[in-house]
Specification:
Strands 3-2-1-4-5 form a 5-stranded mixed β-sheet. The radius of gyration is 16 Å and the shape is globular. Helix 1 packs parallel to helix 3 and helix 4 packs across helix 6. It is about 35% helix and about 20% strand. By secondary structure, it is α/β, with parallel strands linked by helices.
């Protein structure tokens, strides 16, 4: 069981969700110091746990035990039948997004919506949709070494790309918690860090 924390410290959880239980889902639990100071590597964001899991039960158990205030999930948390939502249309000006009508994306969206509802019901945590690829580009992060500029890993280490993406999701949640974020979309929302935005005309490929 995790120890209690001071009121100015809050936990956030990044989830790199896989489309199905046969594939790995990455989890990254962070401890974030509340306030409006700039995010840096001086223990403002501390990595508490990095995990690789597969099943819905494992994910929900981790969330319930961890008690995060915000859960940032790399998965569509809505689907209305069209290839792109308003948030996707806006974000596509900056980076590539797959249409939600692709079979794999529909499956991921279904799992994301199901799990986000269960997380809210079981824990009361706020669940936000994020896109780690976009977060990495906006923050100038290209590898784990760059991530260390923003967070203290302590004894934890990234074991695979799923945990790497989960760490990016968690970092986005930290920016969100501290008010340093931008929202794409109105009907549906994708959250990204608010710094490092390129020109819309720039081709990221």
């Amino acid at each position: 069981m995790l120890e209690s924390k001071p009121k100015n410290l809050m936990r956030v959880l990044g989830v790199d969700l896989a489309g199905g239980e046969r594939s790995i889902t990455g989890l990254c639990l962070l401890l974030v110091r509340s306030g409006s100071e700039e995010l840096d590597n001086e223990c403002v964001v501390e990595v508490l746990k990095l995990r690789s899991v597969r099943t819905d039960v494992e994910i929900l158990d981790f969330v319930v035990t961890s008690r995060p205030k915000v859960v940032a999930m790399d998965a569509p948390l809505s689907f209305h039948g069209a290839p792109y939502r308003d948030c996707d249309v806006e974000l596509r000006k900056y980076c590539r997004l797959l249409p939600l009508t692709f079979y794999g994306m529909r499956v991921l969206a279904e799992r994301g919506m199901r799990l986000s509802d269960a997380i809210r019901e079981k824990t009361g945590a706020e669940v936000i949709e994020v896109y780690p690829y976009a977060s990495a580009r906006f923050l100038g992060i290209s590898d784990a070494d760059d991530l260390r500029k923003f967070m203290n890993f302590g004894k934890e280490s990234i074991k695979n790309k799923h945990e790497y993406d989960a760490a990016l999701c968690g970092l986005t949640a930290a920016f969100y918690l501290r008010g340093g974020y931008k929202v794409f979309g109105k009907q549906d929302r994708i959250i990204v860090p608010s710094t490092g935005f390129p020109n819309e005309a720039e081709n990221w490929g």
